[in-house]
């Protein structure tokens, strides 16, 4: 990609979420530029569902997302690494239960 | 490669007219490839173009079957001259700026959407099946072009002015949408075609609603251009076909 043009820079960014089938959750698929929510939804349809990927689309202004800071990943995520007892792997599962 | 001559029964002519509308407008949209104002719209224009070219393929195939002279979709698309093309003058008008392209799409889709919906009840089973698919596609083309015309008309002074100019430029080509001749009469009589006169109020209401939201004024119906249905085209179609047909005319039957 080349540098965004002035037009693109002035047009808000949206995050796109697609639900592929009934019963599944909406999944983040990418982002796009659009001047408003209606056109963002249409652009999402045109960009991300061309091969029958979706039954439902959400678009969310990227500015509305509060994200964790990658620089804080030590504090945020590493403490869980040593807490293996949080994984449900210490139970005896009776054979009759089958696959869990 | 020499041109083919099509034996035009009313059914063949009727189907060819719809096929030519779809192919020529689809080709016009394909001309935006690599040049659209933004990537999102690049995809939207190409998607609409592909919908239309898909409709054209089904219609050409059916026209070829109806003619029963061995002409397939490629022969009908690539080996007829300008005067044998039967499309509306509206769809061959050049892309111009983005406003012209979107106004052209709106004026056509506001007609084609109710047209295909009505054609789902055609007594001709093939046309009814094509209509069922085309209607869903055209409904989206109408929504997409309408949303853009509203934003362009009700946008900046420049976008408003350009959209108003596009509307004035294209309006004289809208009379042809509702024209009928002996071919239409025969098809309407047979229960195969819908009478375009029955679509006129819907078309006007749709266009008036969009233009109202776009703060644009609906032009008065003045002199209307016509001739496309009988092969008398504006100077633009010949250039379009030169590009569209070049490869098959140069290397007949080429595939890749």
From TrEMBL, chain A:
**InterPro entries from the UniProt entry:** PaaB, PaaB_sf
Q: Which Pfam families does the UniProt record give?
A: PaaB
Which protein are we looking at? 1,2-phenylacetyl-CoA epoxidase, subunit B
TrEMBL record, chain B:
| Signal peptide interval | none
One Pfam family from the UniProt entry?
Answer: PaaA_PaaC
GO annotations of cellular component type: cytosol
Which BP terms in the Gene Ontology apply to this protein? phenylacetate catabolic process
Q: What is the lineage of its organism?
A: Bacteria, Pseudomonadati, Pseudomonadota, Alphaproteobacteria, Hyphomicrobiales
Q: What is this protein called?
A: Phenylacetate-CoA oxygenase subunit PaaC
Among InterPro entries, the record links this protein to:
Aromatic_CoA_ox/epox, Ferritin-like, Ferritin-like_SF, PaaA_PaaC, PaaC
Matching entries from NCBIfam families are given as: PA_CoA_Oxy3 (TIGR02158)
Q: Which organism is it from?
A: Rhodoplanes serenus
Classify the source by domain of life.
Bacteria
């Amino acid at each position: 990609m080349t540098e965004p043009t002035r037009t693109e820079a002035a047009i808000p960014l949206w995050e796109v979420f697609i639900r592929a089938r009934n019963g599944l959750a909406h999944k983040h698929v990418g982002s796009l530029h659009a001047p408003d929510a209606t056109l963002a939804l249409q652009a999402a349809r045109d960009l991300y569902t061309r091969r029958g990927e979706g039954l439902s689309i959400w678009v969310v202004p990227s500015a509305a997302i509060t994200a964790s800071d990658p620089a804080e990943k030590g504090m945020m995520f590493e403490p869980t690494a040593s807490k293996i007892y949080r994984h449900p792997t210490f139970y005896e599962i009776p054979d009759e239960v089958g696959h869990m | 490669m020499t041109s083919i001559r099509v034996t035009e029964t009313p059914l063949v002519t009727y189907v060819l007219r719809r096929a030519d509308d779809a192919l020529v407008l689809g080709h016009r949209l394909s001309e935006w490839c690599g040049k659209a104002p933004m990537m999102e719209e690049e995809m939207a224009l190409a998607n609409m173009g592909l919908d239309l070219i898909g409709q054209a393929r089904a219609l050409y195939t059916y026209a070829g079957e109806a003619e029963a002279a061995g002409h397939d979709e490629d022969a009908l698309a690539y080996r007829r001259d300008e005067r044998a093309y039967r499309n509306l003058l509206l769809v061959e008008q050049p892309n111009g700026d983005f406003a012209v392209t979107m106004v052209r799409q709106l004026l056509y889709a506001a007609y084609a959407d109710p047209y295909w919906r009505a054609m789902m009840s055609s007594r001709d089973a093939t046309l009814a099946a094509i209509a069922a698919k085309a209607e869903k596609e055209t409904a989206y083309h109408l929504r997409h072009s309408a949303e853009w015309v509203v934003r362009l008309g009700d946008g900046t002074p420049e976008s408003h002015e350009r959209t108003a100019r596009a509307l004035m430029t294209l309006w004289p080509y809208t009379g042809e949408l509702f024209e009928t001749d002996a071919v239409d009469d025969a098809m309407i009589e047979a229960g195969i075609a819908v009478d375009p006169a029955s679509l006129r109020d819907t078309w006007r209401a749709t266009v008036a609603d969009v233009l109202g939201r776009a703060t644009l004024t609906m032009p008065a119906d003045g002199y209307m251009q016509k001739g496309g249905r009988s092969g008398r085209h504006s100077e633009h179609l010949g250039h379009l076909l030169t590009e569209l047909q070049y490869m098959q005319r140069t290397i007949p039957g080429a595939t890749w």
